[in-house]
Amino acid sequence: MPVERNVVEQRYEAVMAVVRDGRQVSEVARVYGVTRQTMHAWVSKYEASGMSGLLDASHRPHHSPLQTAPEIEASICELRRRHPAWGPRRISHELVVQNFAVSRASVYRVLVRQHLIEPGKQKRRPADFKRWERSRPMELWQMDIVGGVVLESGNELKVVTAVDDHSRFCVAVGMVERATSPAVCRVLVEALRRHGVPEEILTDNGKVFTNRHGKFPMLESAFDRICRENGIVHRLTGVRSPTTTGKIERFHRTLREELLTGRRFADIDTAQAAIDGWAATYNKDRPHQSLGMLTPITRFHAARPVEIQEVLPVVFTDDCAEVQRRVATRGHVTIAKTQYAVGCAYAGQFVTVRIETSVVHCLIDGKLVKTLEPDPLKLVQRM
User: Fold this and answer.
1) Which of 1, 30, 100, 181 suits 11 as a labelling partner, its CA being 20 to 30 A distant?
2) Sign of CA dihedral 341, 345, 348, 351
3) Residue 236 to residues 64, 106, 192, 233, 239, Cα–Cα distance (Å)
4) How many CB atoms lie within 10 A of CB 140?
5) C-alpha to C-alpha distance for 94 and 79, rounded to whole angstroms
6) What is the chain's Cα-based Rg?
7) In this structure, which topology does domain 140-299 adopt according to CATH?
8) Pick from 179, 229, 253: nearest CA to 209
9) Selection from 379, 110, 105 nearest residue 218 by Cα
10) How many CB atoms lie within 10 A of CB 355?
11) Which stretches of the chain are assigned E, i.e. beta strand?
12) What is the spatial distance between Cα 368 and Cα 356, in angstroms, rounded to a whole number?
């Protein structure tokens, strides 16, 4: 059975027939089924490089005028290594700012070639895609709470966040040890004092934001009360509908990627200082893709600052709700638009009003001073 020879062996035999045996190039070319030019090329390559010259060489051109310049490719790789969360669009924008004309597609090809990102199927939006956003700043804020702030002690903090819907401007990043109603309301009040009052605020249905779906819906949460007293429409998302607050959720993702992931902070003050610095950069320097690579501050302007007063929170337990109220000069307190007589002797003092299923107790310094009989659940019909 004849042994099949590979291409290099056949070329070597053809070259030996010319070099060693002295046969004519045209004759040997005819025997091996190639042109005289090819035969001359084989002989020249063998004489220059030996057997390695008979191997198939790459047909890739030595230079491509369309290939990204080496210095630009190096800049792309360096930006990606320094900022792992940056994608091709952001890197392209930064290079254009530095007067390097390089497209997003070119950056993508460089990152894939250098194994800095995995090639994947590009997501294309429908032709009729329209981004939902309010038409002007201070028309709507989106507000939420995010965790993931880890201290060196191992404790985890929460961040109360808020962004303006139109501009994506971050109006609040308040660090709290626990996401309680007083803590959330303090962050809200500070944001209102600093930036003014928006027309609407959108949140989820958490108890720190509202009690509309709780056991005592006739009682306003402190958050709802702040909104009502300042003319803010408090809108709630649908149940289990996180996409309704998509902008604040996307803000949380950016916050985790660029600041929180893999970091530990010494204490709450250190963490607050770090997140304040990051938020300032986010608002003033960081271009936003949904804004056409503009920064949020270019589309945001604050409203007229107003004096905002904090309100006392409602505390809910399994079988009752407690709220603090100051007794008016005529000896009554107002809860859910209903007045309860406590007594003129207690005017000016703070009382704790404990609302149970069928009775209302008034306490001062833990001492019971008044018990009222009307069913508080009927109050919801008066609101």
Assistant:
1) 1
2) negative
3) 57, 43, 19, 10, 9
4) 21
5) 9
6) 36
7) Nucleotidyltransferase; domain 5 (3.30.420)
8) 179
9) 379
10) 24
11) 140-151, 156-164, 170-176, 200-203, 233-236, 264-265, 314-316, 321-326, 332-335, 338-341, 350-355, 360-364, 367-372
12) 14
Query: Domain spans of the chain?
Result: 7-54, 70-113, 140-299, 317-382
Residue of 101, 353, 83, 330 whose CA lies nearest to 219: 353
How is residue 286 annotated by DSSP? -
Closest CA to 282 of 297, 292, 270, 293: 297
Query: d(Cα 372, Cα 361) in Å, to the nearest integer?
Result: 6
CB 280 within 8 A of CB 259: no
Q: Are 75 and 93 in contact (CB under 8 A)?
A: no
pLDDT tens for the 383 residues of the chain, in order: 344 467 888 888 899 988 888 889 898 999 888 999 999 998 998 888 888 888 887 777 666 666 777 788 888 888 888 888 777 878 887 777 777 777 778 888 888 888 888 776 556 656 555 567 788 899 999 999 999 899 999 999 999 999 999 989 999 999 999 998 889 999 999 999 899 899 999 999 888 898 876 666 667 788 888 888 888 999 998 766 655 678 899 899 989 988 998 899 999 999 999 999 999 988 988 877 766 678 888 888 876 666 665 555 555 555 667 777 788 888 888 776 677 788 888 888 888 887 776 677 888 888 888 887 654 444 433 33
